[in-house]
Amino acid sequence: MSFNINDYKQIAGSNEIEEIKLVAGRLEGVRMHNVNSTPSGGGVAEILARLIPLLRGIGIDATWDVIRGSEDFYQVTKAFHNALHGEKINLTDSMFEIFEHYTNLNLDLFDKEADCYLIHDPQPVGLIRKRSVSPASKWIWRCHIDVSRPDESIWGFISEDIEKYDATVFTMPEFSRPIPVPQFLVTPSIDPLADKNKELNGKTVMQVAEKYDLNPERPIITQVSRFDRLKDPIGVIKSYKLVKKRMDCQLVLAGGGAQDDPESCGVLDEIREAAGDDPDIKILELPPFSDIEINALQRASAIILQKSVREGFGLTVTEALWKGVPVIGSAVGGIKAQVINGVTGYLIYSIEGCAHRIEELLRDPEKGKTMGRNGKELVRSRFLITRHLKNYLLLMLALLKTLNRDLFERQIFMLSA
Ligand code: UDP
C-alpha cells in the first residue's frame, strides 16, 4: 500500500509538499526497515501504519516488522517500560534473562537487508547486534518514551545496545540523555487523512454516541487510552466524580489493549470497580482499528482528558486538538508540548485541579471552543505527519549521504520546530 503525498497539499501547504519531494528525490529507492513490538494498540503502531505507506508513496522502500515474543517477554518489557518511565519496579535477574532470551530468538530470525533501520523503543533494541546483515547500513534507535528519570539499572542495561547505534531520536529535549551517540529530536504526529482523524459528518458522530448509549445533548468528557495505570484512569474517574457532585456530565473511558501490554485486563477490573454502578460512566473496550468510532467519540466530546502519570507524547491529545476539542492534561512528557495552558486547554497537577478545570470549561463552552480552534492550528503547524515525514527524510539524508559521525558526536539536533 502507498499513499499519494499530493493529497496532503491542501492541509499542509504546497511548500511543505515540495520540500518533501525535493529531499525524497535524493533518497529514491533507499530501503528503510522499521521494527517495533506491536502491530496495533498504542501510538507507535498508529504512526507506523500511516508513515510506511506515505514513505512508499514518495519512493522510499519502507517496510515494517514486529518482533516475536510471548506473555513472559511482554511482562518483562512492560516492567522495563514502566521503570524507564521512572516507576519504582522490583527488577530481578530472571527478567534480564528473559529479555536476553527473546532478543537472541529475534536475532536468529532477523535477516532483513536494508540501508537504514529504525528500531522503535526498548523491546527490539538488541537487534543492532545483527548489523552484519547489511554492513554498510545505518541504525537509528527511536525512543518514544520519557526516559528523563529512568531506573538506572535498566538504562545501563539497554545502553550497551543503544551505544552501538549510529543515531538516536527522542521526542522532547528533556528526554535526551548523556550518551555518546548523536541525538535528534523529533515530535510524533497524526495523519489528518486517516480514519482516526478525517472529517466526519454529524450523523456519524451521533450514531456512534447513540451506539454507546451516550446522550449528545449532555456534556461528554472522554479519555481514550490503553487501559494502563500510567494513563491514570482511576484518577479520571475520581475527577469526574468530584465534578458530578455539582454538574451534569457523562464520562467515557475508551480503550483497548496492545500485544505488548499484558496489564490491561487487571487495569480494566480496577476501572470497573472504581466506576461502580454509575450509568453515566461508559467503559468502552474497543477492538483494534476502531478508528472511526474513536474519531466520533472525540468529536462528540466537550472535553478530552489525558490524565497520565507519565507520557511519551500522547497522540490522543493531538487527535483531540485536531478535532477542535480542548484538552485537560497532566503536565507530563509530550502533553506539555501540546496543551498550552489557557490556550489549547489546561495543564493539571491533581485530581482536584482536573475537576476544577472540567467545571470551568463546562460552564463556559465558548472558551472551550476557542481553545479547540487554537489547538487545531497548533497541530497544523507542528504535529502533522508531513512534518514528521520530512524530519525522517532529513535524518536519513544526514546519515546515509552526508554525516560524518564525528561531527555529530555528543550533540543534540532539533529537527522538529
Ligand atoms: N488508541 C486506539 N484504541 C484504544 C486506545 C488508544 O486506537 O483503545 C489509539 C489512540 O487513538 C492513539 C494511540 O492509540 O492514536 C495512543 O497513543 P498515545 O501516544 O496517546 O499513547 P500510547 O498508547 O502510545 O502510550
Describe this structure in words.
The longest helix has 18 residues, at 365-382. The strands form 2 sheets. Strands 2-1-3-4-5-6-13 form a 7-stranded parallel beta sheet, covered by helices on one side. Helices cover 44% and strands 14% of the residues. The model has no long low-confidence stretch (mean pLDDT 95). Helix 8 (233-244) links the parallel strand 7 and strand 8 (250-255). The radius of gyration is 21 Å and the shape is globular. The chain is of the alpha/beta class and 417 residues long. Uridine-5'-diphosphate binds at residues 42-43, 46, 196, 224-226, 254-256, 286, 294, 312-316, 319.
For this entry, give a set of tags:
binds uridine-5'-diphosphate; 417 residues; 16 helices; seven-stranded parallel beta sheet; 13 strands; alpha/beta
Give the overall pLDDT as a whole number: 95
How would the global form be characterised? globular
The count of helical stretches stands at 16
Q: What's the Cα radius of gyration?
A: 21 Å
Largest sheet: 7 strands, parallel
Q: N-to-C SSE series?
A: HHEHEHHEEHEEHEHEHEHEHEHEHHHHE
First-last Cα distance: 29 Å
- Small-molecule binders: uridine-5'-diphosphate
Strand order of the largest sheet: 2-1-3-4-5-6-13
What share of the residues does DSSP label as strand, in percent? Answer: 5-15%
DSSP E strands, number: 13
Give the low-pLDDT segments: none
Given the helix and strand composition, which structural class is it? alpha/beta
Task: Give the helix proportion (percent range).
Answer: 40-55%
